[in-house]
Design goal:
Blueprint lengths: L7 E5 L4 H10 L5 E6 L20 E4 L5 H10 L4 E4 L8 H4 L1 H21 L6 E7 L7 E4 L2 E3 L6 H5 L9 E3 L13 H20 L3 E6 L1 E3 L12 H10 L5 E2 L6 E2 L1 E3 H14 L3 E5 L5 E2 H12 L5 E2 L16 H7 L7 H13 L5 H4 L1
Parallel strand pairs: 1-2, 1-4, 2-3, 4-5, 5-9, 9-14, 10-13, 11-16
Antiparallel strand pairs: 6-7, 6-8, 12-15
Helix pairs in contact: 1-8, 2-4, 4-6, 7-9, 7-11, 9-11
The structure holds nicotinamide-adenine-dinucleotide.
Nicotinamide-adenine-dinucleotide binds next to helix 1, helix 4, strand 5 and strand 10.
């Protein structure tokens, strides 16, 4: 069921990139819109209400991993729809800060479930923003058939063995690709899925899990150097720098534009369907292709391969979206070049940059 004027929508992490964009698109369909957000300083360095959050959204500053903060939120509101976006999102960072990632992502989800029970709240729908990170390296096809390679070791990366021999990667599909996270962030996103699936199944609450690929677009934090590679590349090219390409530049990602992700969340809520759904553009690119598009836009020097790498990064991340299109009646609309253009024009109007934030 689509949102109605009877709905009280609670969006954890609702002041972030995706949550703010969603608030602007969907707030008019609900009676109350509550963004419950800690204003994490890695994303919100001024710790102020973000301009991108819809004016009518109620912002409750609090931590999903705090029972007291949950009590504060649920004493004042009985949400009918919960969109769970709050998370620690640094993929490589998560290998050094496992406790922080597990506390917010895993414990924070459990805290939410316990708080709902404590306050006797039975939402009619919960939607979880999960991630392509649950697949890790996904499935590859080699001489002996398909296999799930697991993490690339530090020694492998140090030896510049970027791929898995001659094997070729297979796009992930929620229905058939086994999850096998290769970083702590991915493991915590899978734990969120499992926790909510168990809880919602028992309480009869429909749960829609959307596994997002790499989301980009206007509104993504320009000061968070740990996520948002398209924003990072854009700032470098805008400054006239050559974009450095990790590994051999042939890391593959599926970049999906923010408006398409907002549309997928709305379609997920409207469908009322429980299940796991991949959300991407369905049109993967190498990081080198993306960097070249951005460099061309700014007339910057050509990107250069540096052979640097990050532990915990996956080589290939892309998904098939046919099942999501069929189930949710949603389809991405914004092609990469168009989306990159929107992002460049938005960045040009912003004051903040990574270089000014540190
Ligand atoms: N952006 C992507 O490319 C992408 C890809 C896959 C999945 N996701 C998922 O989508 C969700 C939203 O991501 P985003 O891109 O909007 O990220 P974001 O960092 O812009 O927003 C996350 C928000 O959560 C808040 N937050 C962090 N810790 C919190 C805590 N302890 N309590 C309350 N709020 C807290 C932050 O302040 C921030 O406003 C996350 O769950 C993320 O894992 C995002």
């Amino acid at each position: 069921m689509s949102l109605t004027r009877d709905d009280v929508v609670l969006v954890t992490g609702g002041a972030g990139f995706i949550g703010s964009a969603l608030s602007r698109a969907a707030i008019g369909s609900a009676s109350r819109w509550i963004a419950f957000d800690s204003l994490h300083e890695q994303i919100h360095d001024r710790r102020e209400r973000p301009q991108d959050l819809a004016d009518d959204a109620e912002l409750v500053i609090g931590d999903v991993a705090s029972a007291a903060d949950w009590d504060r939120v649920l004493s004042d509101a009985t949400p009918t729809v919960i969109i769970h976006l709050a998370a620690e999102t640094g993929t490589s960072q998560s290998l050094q800060h496992a406790t922080r990632h597990a506390t917010v992502n895993v414990l924070g989800t459990a805290m939410m479930m316990d708080a709902l029970v404590r306050h006797d709240v039975h939402p009619r729908h919960i939607l979880l923003a999960s991630s392509r990170a649950v697949y890790g390296e996904g499935v590859w096809n080699g001489a002996d058939g398909e296999f799930s390679p697991g993490p690339r070791s530090h020694a492998q990366l140090e030896a510049k063995q970027w791929d898995f021999g001659d094997a070729v990667p297979v796009p992930s599909h929620a229905a058939r690709t086994p999850p096998r996270p290769v970083n702590v962030y991915g493991a915590t996103k899978l734990a969120q899925e499992n926790l909510l699936e168990a809880w919602c199944g028992s309480y009869g609450v429909p749960l829609t899990v959307l596994r997002f690929q790499n989301v980009y677009g206007p509104g993504q934090s320009l000061i968070n150097s740990y996520t948002g590679i398209v924003s990072l590349f854009s700032q470098m090219a805008e400054e006239g720098r050559a974009i450095p390409l990790y590994e051999d530049g042939r890391i593959v990602r599926d970049f999906v534009f923010i408006d398409d992700v907002v549309a997928a969340i709305r379609a997920g809520i409207a469908s009322g369907k429980s299940g796991l759904f991949d959300v991407g553009s369905g049109d993967p690119s190498t990081i080198s292709q993306v960097a070249e598009l951005i460099a061309k836009y700014h007339n910057a020097p050509p990107p250069r391969v540096t052979e640097q790498y990050r532990d915990g990064d996956v080589r290939y991340a892309a998904c098939g979206i046919e099942a999501t299109v069929a189930a949710l009646g949603w389809r991405p609309q914004v092609a990469l070049e168009e989306g990159i253009g929107h992002l460049q024009r938005w960045i040009a109007q912003q004051e903040q940059r990574i270089t000014t934030a540190r």
